[in-house]
Design goal:
With 668 residues, the protein is of the alpha/beta class. The protein has a domain at 464-667: 3-Layer(aba) Sandwich (Rossmann fold). It contains 22 helices and 17 strands. The chain has helices at 15-38, 44-63, 69-81, 85-94, 129-148, 198-203, 211-230, 237-267, 282-300, 306-310, 316-322, 331-347, 359-376, 382-387, 420-434, 489-504, 517-526, 544-548, 577-583, 598-611, 616-623, 637-644, and strands at 5-6, 164-171, 177-184, 190-195, 312-313, 389-394, 414-416, 471-473, 478-482, 508-511, 529-533, 555-558, 567-569, 572-575, 588-592, 658-662, 665-667. It has a six-stranded mixed sheet, sandwiched between helices. It has a five-stranded mixed sheet with strand order 4-3-2-6-7. Helix 2 packs antiparallel against helix 3. The two termini are 42 Å apart. 43% of the residues are buried. The model is unreliable at 5-11, 115-127 and 437-466 (pLDDT under 50).
Length: 668
C-alpha cells in the first residue's frame, strides 16, 4: 500500500471480485461509523479494534486493485491513532490540574479551622507572568487539539522537518500480521501489511518464526538478565564470576540473534522503510525505475499482455523505498521483493505464471539492478546522515521490543513517541518557547535555526535541501541525583568528580541522600536537564500524578533499572514512567527497558556525556569564547545514545536496553 498505479482504464473485474469489493465497502462504512460515534469517549479496546479492522479491510481492498493515496493515508492515520488512545485522553484530563490557582500541599495535614496557606508554586523559581501565560496558552491549545483531533487528520506531517521520519509499527490482535507505515515531510504515507509467516508459507516450512516465538524468547532473555543483574553482588569466587559472565554473554548473543531474526523474518525486503531517504537525483531515479520495470516486463511479457504491462507503473514511494535495499542482502529478502512486485502486476490484471518464472534468475538480475542503483545515485553527506532522525510509534504489542537495535537501525538517531499528535505538541512547544512572550525560555532557541523549509520531493538531491531540527536546551541549567539510596558506591565514586566540576558551572543536585518530592518538583519544573543515577526511574521519590501535573518539564536521563519499561495491562494500553513524563511535556527522556548492571550502564552513560560535550571544561570554554577553531554542531541525545550502545561490554544485553522517548534534544 500503495500497490502501484495504472495509467490506463481500470482492470475488468469478475462478478465474484465485484461482490467481494462491495462487501468490503459495506464493512468499511460500518467501521467508519463506529469510529465516528466512539472516538471521543468510547471503549478504547473497541476503537483500537475498529482501527485495526479498517486497516486490514483496506489492505484487502488494495489487493483487489482498489489503490489510491486516500486509502493509504487513511490506513496510516488509523494505525497512528490506535497507538495512544488512552494517553491522549489522559492528557486532555490532566491539563486542568497543571494550572490550579492554588494547589494545596497534600503532604501537609489540612487545618480545619483556617485555610491552609501552604501551596505548591505553579511554576517554580518565581517564573514571570509572561511565562505563566505562555505555558497556559500552550497547554490549552494542546488540549483543544487532542479534543478535536480527527482520526484521518493530515496535519501531522505538514510542519514536520525534512530530516525526520516517523515509523508506526502495529500488530493485529491475532498476532499474525504486522503493519509498518512511514510518514515524511512532503510525501504521502507509505504502508506495508506483512503476514509474519509469509516466508515460511512460501517455502513450505511447517515451523515459522511467529510473534509468540519472539515474545517468549524476549521475555525469557529479559527475565534471566534481570535475575542475573540482581544477583550480581552475591557472586563469589573466580569460578562463580566466570559462570556469571558466561551466562551474560550467552544472553547477549541470544538478544542479538533475536533482533536479527525479527528483521529478517518479519520485515525482509520491507526493512527499507526504516532507511534514511535515498539521495536520488531525478536522472538516477528515472534510470532505476526504467531498469526495474524492464526487468519484470521481460519475464511477464507476451504479445497480448505487453500493452497492458506498459500501462502499469510502480509507485514513486515504493521505488524510493526499495531503491535503498542493499545489493548485499540475502537472497530470501530479494525473493520477498520479487513476489511483492509480481503480486502487484497480478492485481492490475497481468497473468503471472509462477511455475514458468525462474525466481533464482530474477533474484540475480534484481541484485544487479540494485548494484547499479547504488553506484549511480549521488552519495549522501555524513552531515545529512547524522541529522536524520527516525521516530518510532509502537502499539502495545511491540513496545517491549528494542527496535532501536535492529541491524537496520543500530547506531542511528532513534526515539519513541506515543503518536503523531504528541509529536505535533512538541513542535508547538518549540514555537511557544520562541515567542516574544517567553523571553526567559527562548534564549537557547535563539542560538539555533529551527525553521522548517518547504517540502522537497523524494527524487531531489537531499544533500542540498536538508535542514535539521533539534530541541535546544541550556546545558548549564542542570540538576543531578546521584546514589540517593546510598548503595551504589561504585557509581558514586565514578561520577562524583564529574558532579563536582558541573557544580562549578551552575549545576545543583543531591548526592547520597533521598530527595524530597518538593525538591524533585522544583528541579523538574525549573531545570533544562535532570540526570538520575539510582534505582528504577525515581518513582519511589515522586508520585506519578505530581509528574503529570507539571506545566513544564526538564529533559531527563534516568539511568536506573527498567526506568523506561511500560507495564503490560493485557487488553488495555500500557502505562509507566515514560508516559508520565510525556504528559508533563518532557522534551526527551533517556531510560532503560529492563534491568542493567551498574558498571556497564555507567560506561554507556559516561560515553553519552562525552559525546554531548556535557563537560565543565568545554562548557566554560564555550561560554568564554575560547573554543578552538570552528565549533562543530553538537549531537542530539538520541544520536549520542545510538552511538554509545557499542561502548558496553554486553552490546545488546545492556546496549539495547537504553532507549530515548520524545524528540531530539541538542544542548547549547
Amino acid at each position: 500500500m500503495p500497490m502501484g498505479s495504472s495509467s490506463g482504464s481500470s482492470t475488468a473485474l469478475s462478478k465474484a471480485r465485484k461482490d467481494v469489493k462491495a462487501t468490503l465497502a459495506r464493512a468499511e462504512s460500518a467501521f467508519d461509523k463506529t469510529l465516528a460515534s466512539d472516538a471521543a469517549c468510547g471503549r478504547v479496546q473497541r476503537i483500537r479494534e475498529a482501527c485495526m479492522s479498517l486497516s486490514l479491510l483496506r489492505a484487502f481492498q488494495t489487493s483487489l486493485g482498489q489503490s489510491s493515496s486516500t486509502v493509504t493515508s487513511k490506513t496510516a492515520w488509523a494505525l497512528d491513532h490506535s497507538s495512544a488512545i488512552t494517553l491522549s485522553r489522559e492528557l486532555v484530563e490532566i491539563v486542568a490540574s497543571k494550572f490550579r490557582d492554588s494547589a494545596p500541599d497534600d503532604l501537609v495535614w489540612p487545618d480545619l479551622e483556617e485555610p491552609s496557606s501552604s501551596t505548591t508554586p505553579l511554576l517554580p523559581n518565581g517564573d514571570s507572568s509572561s511565562r505563566h501565560s505562555s505555558m497556559r496558552s500552550y497547554w490549552s491549545s494542546v488540549r483543544e487539539r487532542h479534543l478535536s483531533e480527527a482520526i484521518y487528520s493530515t496535519k501531522g506531517t505538514t510542519e514536520m522537518p525534512p530530516n525526520w521520519s516517523v515509523v508506526t509499527i502495529n500488530v493485529t490482535d491475532d498476532q499474525s500480521t504486522l503493519f509498518i507505515s512511514r510518514h515524511r515531510h512532503g510525501s504521502e504515507p507509505l504502508v506495508f501489511c506483512l503476514p509474519l509467516d509469509r516466508q515460511g508459507r512460501r517455502d513450505g516450512d511447517d515451523e515459522t518464526f511467529t510473534f509468540l516465538n519472539a515474545k517468549e524468547e524476549l521475555e525469557e532473555i529479559i527475565s534471566k538478565s534481570n535475575d542475573g543483574a540482581k544477583n550480581a553482588k552475591g557472586v563469589e569466587g573466580k569460578e562463580g564470576r566466570a559462570a556469571w559472565w558466561a551466562e551474560r554473554r550467552d544472553l547477549d548473543k541470544r538478544m542479538e540473534e533475536l533482533l536479527s531474526n525479527i528483521e529478517f523474518c518479519w520485515l525482509g525486503a520491507f526493512k527499507t522503510i526504516l532507511n534514511r531517504p535515498s539521495p536520488h537525483s531525478p536522472e538516477s531515479f528515472s534510470l532505476f525505475r526504467s531498469k526495474m520495470e524492464k526487468l519484470f516486463t521481460r519475464v511477464l511479457s507476451s504479445d497480448q499482455d505487453r500493452r497492458k504491462l506498459l500501462k502499469i507503473h510502480l509507485d514513486d514511494n515504493l521505488l524510493e523505498c526499495f531503491s535503498s535495499l542493499s545489493p548485499l542482502c540475502r537472497d530470501e529478502e530479494l525473493e520477498d521483493l520479487v513476489y511483492f512486485v509480481l503480486d502487484l502486476y497480478q492485481v492490475h490484471g497481468v497473468p503471472v505464471a509462477l511455475a514458468e518464472i525462474d525466481i533464482d534468475e530474477l533474484v540475480t538480475d534484481l541484485r544487479g539492478v540494485l548494484e547499479d542503483s547504488e553506484r549511480d545515485r549521488p552519495k549522501s553527506s555524513s552531515d545529512d546522515e547524522e541529522d536524520h532522525h527516525t521516530f518510532l510509534i509502537l502499539d502495545r504489542h511491540v513496545q517491549s521490543i528494542p527496535w532501536e537495535s535492529l541491524p537496520s537501525l543500530r547506531g542511528r538517531s532513534i526515539s519513541r513517541i506515543p503518536s503523531l499528535a504528541f509529536l505535533a505538541d512538541r513542535l508547538a512547544l518549540s514555537k511557544h518557547l520562541l515567542s516574544p512572550s517567553s523571553p526567559s525560555l527562548s534564549s537557547a532557541f535563539s542560538k539555533m535555526d529551527v525553521s522548517s523549509p518547504s517540502p522537497s520531493p523524494s527524487t531531489s538531491d537531499t544533500s542540498s535541501t536538508s535542514t535539521s531540527f533539534a530541541f535546544p536546551m541550556d546545558v548549564r541549567n542542570g540538576f543531578f541525583i546521584l546514589n540517593p539510596s546510598g548503595d551504589l558506591k561504585k557509581t558514586q565514586d565514578q561520577f562524583e568528580p564529574w558532579i563536582k566540576q558541573m557544580k562549578e558551572i551552575g549545576w545543583d543536585g543531591i548526592v547520597g541522600r533521598v530527595p524530597s518530592e518538593g525538591e524533585l518538583i522544583q528541579a523538574l519544573g525549573s531545570k533544562d536537564i535532570v540526570v538520575y543515577f539510582g534505582h528504577g526511574g525515581g518513582e519511589q521519590y515522586i508520585r506519578s500524578h505530581k509528574i503529570r501535573s507539571l506545566p513544564r518539564c526538564a529533559t531527563l536521563m534516568l539511568w536506573g533499572c527498567s526506568s523506561g519499561a511500560l507495564r503490560d495491562f493485557g487488553e488495555f494500553d500500557r502505562a509507566g514512567t515514560p508516559w508520565n513524563y510525556m504528559l508533563a511535556g518532557c522534551p526527551s527522556l533517556v531510560a532503560n527497558l529492563w534491568d542493567v548492571t551498574d558498571r556497564d550502564i555507567d560506561r554507556l552513560s559516561e560515553a553519552v556525556f562525552l559525546d554531548l560535550d556535557i563537560q565543565a571544561g568545554s562548557i566554560r570554554a564555550a561560554a568564554n569564547g575560547k573554543a578552538s577553531g570552528k565549533k562543530k554542531k553538537g549531537k542530539t541525545t538520541a544520536r549520542a545514545v545510538g552511538e554509545a550502545r557499542d561502548k558496553c561490554k554486553l552490546r545488546f544485553l545492556t546496549g539495547a536496553a537504553v532507549v530515548v522517548y520524545g524528540v531530539p534534544v541538542r544542548f547549547v
